[in-house]
Design brief:
This protein has 3 helices and 13 strands. The radius of gyration is 18 Å and the shape is globular. The two termini are 24 Å apart.
């Protein structure tokens, strides 16, 4: 499996591919085509940043059977979709800042799909042609706000509420040193 991401070295931001303990610097974002510059940097000398620069984040809810049961909900039969703010993305090893500490805040681990090309009105049969890859993400929810509003955008879009990884591993979230949620892609309903 190949691993790509966004990196910082001094004041410079760039995209690269991780190869063992080094970063192969890319000439452009990896989802636009993989072209190396020839520059190689030691992984220890760079800061791992946000691996993508999306114009929007599209979220799909109630798509894990165990989460539907846990929330005492019934499957809708159709995806529950909303948008999250790109400003909610959190860089590697960044600090999550809870907007309202007095509110109930939940942490959920999600499968994240990285779309690698502009797409609109794509047929189901061609959908995977536009997928660059998959990773894991964490979706943080302010449940007090979620219960009081019909839309999910605000309760899930505060700065730092969406962390994503550069590579896909077993999906689990640690909160205060304990496993808060653990799942895998096959547990999804859709």
């Amino acid at each position: 499996m190949r691993t790509f991401g966004g990196f910082k070295s001094q004041d410079r931001f760039f995209y690269g591919e991780v190869r063992a303990e080094e970063i192969d610097v890319l000439a452009q974002p990896y989802w636009l085509g993989i072209r190396t510059t020839g520059e190689i940097l030691p992984l220890d000398n760079v800061e791992i940043s946000i691996p993508v620069a999306p114009s929007k984040l599209i979220a799909v809810g109630l798509n894990y059977a165990d989460h539907i049961a846990e929330m005492k909900r019934t499957p809708l039969g159709t995806p529950l979709i909303w948008f999250k703010a790109p400003s909610s993305l959190l860089a590697h090893n960044g600090t999550i800042e809870i907007a309202y500490p007095e509110h109930q805040t939940d942490f959920e681990v999600e499968l994240a799909v990285v779309i690698g090309a502009t797409a609109k009105n794509v047929s189901r049969g061609r959908a995977r042609d536009f997928v660059f890859g998959y990773t894991i993400g964490q979706d943080i929810s302010d449940r007090d706000l979620q219960k009081s509003e019909k839309q999910f955008g605000r309760c899930k879009s505060f700065d730092t509420y969406t962390s994503i990884a550069m590579s896909s591993r077993p999906i689990s979230t640690l909160h205060s040193g304990k496993t808060a949620r653990s799942s895998n892609a096959p547990a999804q309903v859709r």
